[in-house]
């Protein structure tokens, strides 16, 4: 956190920091340049002219280093022009301007495109090389002229490589951000679709119980005068069916409550439940998955939302076992007094592709959340296990 604050402060005060660095750099340069040696300076007789050359070089270096982030291209050309002017007047290449040129060239190459950087910097390097050959005392093939040109080219190349690397990292980070946003949007869409699918299935259950209420109400009206003793059982059926309808309507409202939108599931698959578990296991056996099924406790009727959630969790878990497993899986369903617990375990195949979309787990968790239960999935020791606990009190069968 502290380092992040320091970086944010330096970004806000980049110009001030550059100015301080420029003053310190030029000051230390001249301190080391003149310390203990009277022979430093341009090889010219007039001392006042030599001082003027140092002043011009220092002023140029200070301005270029302090403002290099704002006008790197212009300052690179300015440094080049002043360096050529000093060489033309004295035959001497000032080392401070050489170092300043390298720093500004790096900044320029890092902040502009490759073509522009090499065009401008290459022209400046060529101009200084020609000036060194024309005005320098060592001639065209002097080692120092080739050395300065080589260092200049290297610094531009380093700046361009840094810019390319930074652009690549920014692009990768942007792609990762977009991928994460897309993944989150897709997960929200899948959750919404799963909610609507649950609601459609519960709608079928509610419709069935309303039909029962309608039939029993008609029967009660029919036997009211001729067989009054038969009205009581019919009204009891109506009461139980009405209670069930109220419970399931509460489940529908709970499932649909949320801000996410989604598309309707166009599937016409009939409503499923644990009563159809045998058919589900047969279908997996036909596709090559051997399931070892254990049931603990006596099976009983469950609330529709729990029954549907349990079936879908078993279905999705066995589908994953079939895709990524070795062809064998174990399924344990425990009917406890207050809950139904599901555990699916399978070995992971060695050639299984790593990871998946994760939307199957999203759907299972949404199913379990609709009942007030939980789902956990864990991969460890070469095996994958899904465990679900769904609250389910005993339900009276009409």
TrEMBL record:
Ranges of residues in domain Histidine kinase/HSP90-like ATPase: 309-392
InterPro entries: DUF7134 (IPR055558), HATPase_C_sf (IPR036890), HATPase_dom (IPR003594), Sensor_HK_TwoCompSys (IPR050482), Sig_transdc_His_kin_sub3_dim/P (IPR011712)
EC number(s) on file: 2.7.13.3
Gene3D superfamilies per UniProt: 1.20.5.1930, Histidine kinase-like ATPase, C-terminal domain
Keyword Transferase in annotation: yes
Enzyme class: transferase
The entry's keywords: ATP-binding, Kinase, Membrane, Nucleotide-binding, Phosphoprotein, Transferase, Transmembrane, Transmembrane helix, Two-component regulatory system
Domain of life, source organism: Bacteria
GO MF entry, a single one: kinase activity
Transmembrane region(s): 15-34, 49-67, 117-135
Domain Signal transduction histidine kinase subgroup 3 dimerisation and phosphoacceptor intervals: 194-259
Positions of the DUF7134 domain: 7-166
SUPFAM superfamilies tied to this protein: ATPase domain of HSP90 chaperone/DNA topoisomerase II/histidine kinase
Catalytically driven reaction(s): ATP + protein L-histidine = ADP + protein N-phospho-L-histidine
Keyword Membrane: yes
Protein name: histidine kinase
Natural source organism: Glycomyces tritici
């Amino acid at each position: 956190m502290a380092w992040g604050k320091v970086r944010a402060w330096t970004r806000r005060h980049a110009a001030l920091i550059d100015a301080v660095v420029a003053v310190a750099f030029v000051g230390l340069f001249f301190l080391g340049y003149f310390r203990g040696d009277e022979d430093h300076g341009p090889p010219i007789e007039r001392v006042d002219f030599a001082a003027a050359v140092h002043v011009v070089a220092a002023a140029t270096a200070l301005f270029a280093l302090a403002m290099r982030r704002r006008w790197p291209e212009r300052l690179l050309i300015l440094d080049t022009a002043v360096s050529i002017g000093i060489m033309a007047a004295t035959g001497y290449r000032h080392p401070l301007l050489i170092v300043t040129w390298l720093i500004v060239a790096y900044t320029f190459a890092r902040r502009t495109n490759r073509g522009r950087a090499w065009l401008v910097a290459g022209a400046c390097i060529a101009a200084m090389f020609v000036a060194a050959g024309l005005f320098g005392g060592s001639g065209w093939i002097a080692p120092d002229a080739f050395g300065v040109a080589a260092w200049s080219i290297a610094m531009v190349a380093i700046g361009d490589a840094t810019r390319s690397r930074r652009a690549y990292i920014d692009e990768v980070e942007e792609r990762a951000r977009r991928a994460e946003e897309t993944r989150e949007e897709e997960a929200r869409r899948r959750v919404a679709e799963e909610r609507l699918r649950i609601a459609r299935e519960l709608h079928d259950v509610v419709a069935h119980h309303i039909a029962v209420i309608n039939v029993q109400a008609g029967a009660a009206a029919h036997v009211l005068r001729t067989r009054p003793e038969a009205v009581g059982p019919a009204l009891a059926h109506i009461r139980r069916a009405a209670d069930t309808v109220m419970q399931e309507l509460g489940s529908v409202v709970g499932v649909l409550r949320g801000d996410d939108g989604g598309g309707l599931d166009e599937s016409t698959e009939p409503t499923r439940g644990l009563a159809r578990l045998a058919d589900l296991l047969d279908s997996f056996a036909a596709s090559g998955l051997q399931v070892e099924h254990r049931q603990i406790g006596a099976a009983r009727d469950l609330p529709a939302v729990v029954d549907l959630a349990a079936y879908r969790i078993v279905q999705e878990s066995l589908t994953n076992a079939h895709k990524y497993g070795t062809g064998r899986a174990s399924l344990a369903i425990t009917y406890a007094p207050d809950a139904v617990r599901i555990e699916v375990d399978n070995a992971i195949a060695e050639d299984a592709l790593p990871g998946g979309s994760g939307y199957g787990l999203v759907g299972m968790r949404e199913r379990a959340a609709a009942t007030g239960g939980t789902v956990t999935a864990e991969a460890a020791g070469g095996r994958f296990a899904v465990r679900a606990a769904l609250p389910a009190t005993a339900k009276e069968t009409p």
